[in-house]
């Protein structure tokens, strides 16, 4: 699962990879939870790049949707930072 964000404090959503009928597909989900506690499903794509591009292209709509959802229960983990020594 990947979290998609353009700005650190404003995630757009998540992309989940799944295998369906022997093929890997990517599902876009909103950032936030619906009344049942799930992440709203948005779209299925054939590549990670397509999923991320779709989310970036629909940033305004996703931001509006996020504001109408319940917050995520946990903060996304901070990734390890890589420092170049060269």
Fold and architecture overview:
The chain is an alpha+beta fold and 86 residues long. It has one domain: Transcriptional Co-activator pc4, Chain A (Roll). 23% of the residues lie in helices and 35% in strands. It is built from two helices and four strands. It has helices spanning 48-57, 59-68, and strands spanning 2-7, 10-20, 23-30, 41-45. It has a four-stranded antiparallel beta sheet. A hairpin with a 2-residue loop joins β2 (10-20) and β3. The chain starts with a strand and ends in an 18-residue tail after the last helix. The model is unreliable at 80-86 (pLDDT under 50).
List the helices and strands and how they pair.
Layout: E1 2-7, E2 10-20, E3 23-30, E4 41-45, H1 48-57, H2 59-68
Antiparallel strand pairs: 1-2, 2-3, 3-4
Quick rundown:
The chain is of the alpha+beta class and 86 residues long.
Number of domains: 1
Strand order of the largest sheet: 1-2-3-4
* Rg, nearest Å: 14 Å
Quaternary state reads single chain
The CATH architecture comes to Roll
Low-confidence stretches: 80-86
In percent, how helical is the residue content? 10-25%
Name its key features.
35% strand; alpha+beta; 4-stranded antiparallel sheet; 86 residues
């Amino acid at each position: 699962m990947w979290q998609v964000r353009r700005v650190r404090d404003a995630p757009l959503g998540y992309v989940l990879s799944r295998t369906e009928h022997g093929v890997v597909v990517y599902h876009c989900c909103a950032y936030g939870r619906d009344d049942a506690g799930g992440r709203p499903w948005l779209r299925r794509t054939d590549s990670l790049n397509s999923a991320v591009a779709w989310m970036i292209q629909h940033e305004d709509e996703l931001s509006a949707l996020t504001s109408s959802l319940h917050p995520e229960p946990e903060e996304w983990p901070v990734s390890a930072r890589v420092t170049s020594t060269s």
